């Protein structure tokens, strides 16, 4: 693995895809002045920037002012594409079918007793009584998962973006491995939290697969993409992009998937690489 300072960048980068928490954002959930300047410089140079995150669209206020041009962000680990210029309106949804979600609930309860669940809908999150409460969403419904996932007429309910599963005793990686073994043939499992909190999406739905769709719409190849991430939910994206960087604070799985490594999120590791890409583009006479 090469570092941000000695890794050669491709001749022409057209799109930067970056995770937020633990990657672009500092530990206090802010975007540093240096990173704001780097993002603006990338857009000025004709390089699109996509925020690709596990966050729902309603939690994108921290970066909404820094989305230029297209205004789009990939949210909920690829389950939704949101237009931040339009208040977070969802322009693409790749839902988790409720029947599959219920099957996963039953399978995980049997394999890991004590698992509790939350359901992330396109309109907000709802969770079981024993699930760690979401203080950011005071209007959430609290009920058992079967009730949260029930719809009177199949196919008419609000889309389910992802299912969240929490366990108070298992280690995060052990819980992820168990879930994939138990139900990985029915849904996509990943995690981004330091606790045993799993994120469950529809089959084949990931940050990478939705980013690939967005890039295809723009005629952008993987070789023209640089990606940044720090956790297991970034692994597919880091592997897909032609060039990718794991943060200095990254999980071992992200480090193994990336082609390069940069500084930590608190050291503006994303900005470090963007600044170098722009400098090399200018030296080569590429871009605007």
TrEMBL record:
- Give an example GO molecular function: hydrolase activity
**Where does the source fall among the domains of life?**
Bacteria
- Mind telling me which Pfam families this protein's record contains? Hydrolase_3 (PF08282)
What SUPFAM superfamilies does the database record attribute to this sequence?
HAD-like
Instruction: Give the matching Gene3D superfamilies.
Output: 3.30.1240.10, HAD superfamily/HAD-like
Mind telling me which InterPro entries this protein's record contains? Cof, HAD-like_sf, HAD-SF_hydro_IIB, HAD_sf
Which keywords describe this protein according to UniProt?
Answer: Hydrolase
Annotated transmembrane regions = none
Q: What is this protein called?
A: Cof-type HAD-IIB family hydrolase
Q: What is the lineage of its organism?
A: Bacteria, Bacillati, Actinomycetota, Actinomycetes, Kitasatosporales
């Amino acid at each position: 693995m090469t570092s941000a300072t000695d890794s050669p960048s491709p001749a022409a980068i057209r799109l930067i895809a970056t995770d937020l928490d633990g990657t672009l954002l500092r530990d206090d959930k802010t975007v540093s002045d240096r990173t704001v300047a780097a993002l603006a410089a990338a857009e000025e140079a004709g390089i699109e920037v996509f925020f690709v995150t596990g966050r729902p669209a309603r939690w994108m206020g921290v970066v909404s002012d820094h989305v230029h041009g297209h205004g789009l962000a990939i949210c909920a680990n690829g389950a939704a594409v949101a237009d931040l210029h339009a208040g977070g309106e969802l322009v693409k949804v790749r839902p988790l079918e409720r029947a599959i979600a219920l099957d996963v609930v039953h399978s995980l309860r049997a394999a890991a007793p004590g698992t509790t669940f939350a359901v992330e809908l396109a309109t907000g999150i709802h969770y079981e009584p024993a699930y760690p409460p979401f203080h950011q969403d005071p209007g959430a419904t609290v009920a058992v998962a079967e009730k949260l996932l029930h719809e009177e007429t199949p196919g008419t309910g609000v889309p389910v973006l992802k299912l969240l599963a929490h366990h108070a005793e298992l280690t995060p990686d052990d819980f992820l491995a168990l879930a994939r073994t138990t139900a990985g043939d029915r849904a996509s499992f990943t995690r981004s939290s330091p606790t045993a909190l799993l994120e469950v999406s529809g089959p084949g739905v990931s940050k990478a697969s939705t980013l690939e769709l967005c890039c295809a719409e723009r005629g952008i190849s993987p070789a023209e993409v640089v990606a940044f991430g720090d956790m297991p939910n970034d692994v597919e994206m880091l592997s897909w992009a032609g060039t990718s960087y794991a943060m200095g604070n990254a999980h071992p799985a992200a480090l193994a998937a990336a082609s390069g490594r940069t500084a930590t999120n608190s050291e503006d590791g994303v900005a470090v690489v963007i600044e170098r890409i722009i400098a090399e583009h200018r030296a080569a006479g590429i871009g605007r």
